[in-house]
Write a structure and sequence with these properties.
The chain is an alpha+beta fold. The protein has four helices and eleven strands, in the order H-E-H-E-E-E-E-E-H-E-E-E-E-E-H. The chain has one domain.
Length: 228
């Protein structure tokens, strides 16, 4: 199960919430702290992430929903490759924990790596890594919006509506064309076009996004879309 593919689907629980925030592009910082200072800030914020939330998922309201959901791999890629059905029943209402451990933002190699952990009925752990030089865009939006994009019924094509309490926000990290986020999980590994990190506090999410954007800029990341 891949994390962006998976979706934890499984409900991919990851959070967002009843009130959602529209995606906001993070402004580029031309000046600011050094790369060493910025990388340390990014690393510290990642290692502080500990979330707990409840959510309801419209995709899993019917009795046979477990046979239609995409496995806990929805988490990553935008779903270009359908994942296998979830092996166990997935409740329409569920409670999950989300945390990040072992995060490392390395200024010398311009790379970020961490382990993403989900606890509860849909438990999983995924090791994630990517290059700061290869980031294209960073934005902040609600996890409800992210899950609407990722979670869908592969049989009917119906999009899911996932509401979270309390609200949770996702910092969405999209890589340049041809560049990937690398993931390793129990039973396999994968590569995705983008990934995201979750926060309960929208202001903290925005500060983290700005710091990550600044680090990427200092590492020489180039946005290849001149019409954005």
């Amino acid at each position: 199960m891949s994390r962006t593919n998976i979706a934890p689907i499984v409900l991919v629980f990851f959070a967002a919430s009843l009130g959602h925030a529209s995606a906001q592009a993070v402004p580029v910082q031309q000046n600011g702290p050094s790369l060493d200072v910025t990388a340390k800030y990014v690393q510290d914020r990642l290692n502080e992430i500990r979330l707990s939330y409840s959510a309801d998922n419209s995709l899993f309201d019917d009795a046979d929903a477990e046979n239609k959901c995409e496995e806990a791999a929805i988490r990553a890629s935008g779903g270009d490759k359908p994942a296998p059905p979830c092996p166990n029943p997935v409740p329409a209402l569920y409670t999950e924990g989300y945390s990040i451990t072992g995060a490392r933002a390395d200024a010398s190699s311009c790379s970020v790596a961490f382990r993403e952990n989900v606890t509860g009925k849909l438990a999983m752990s995924v090791d994630v890594s990517f290059s700061l030089r290869e980031i294209n865009t960073i934005s902040v939006t609600s996890m409800t919006d992210i899950m609407t994009q990722l979670l869908h019924d592969p049989v009917s094509g119906k999009a899911a509506t996932v509401n979270y309490s309390p609200a949770v926000y996702g910092v969405r990290i999209k890589m340049n064309p041809g560049k990937k986020v690398h993931e390793t999980f129990k039973g396999g590994s994968g590569e995705q076009d983008w990934t995201y990190v979750e926060f309960l506090d929208e202001d903290v999410a925005n500060r983290f996004a700005k710091a990550l954007n600044h680090a990427a800029e200092l590492c020489g990341a180039v946005d290849n879309d001149p019409f954005k």
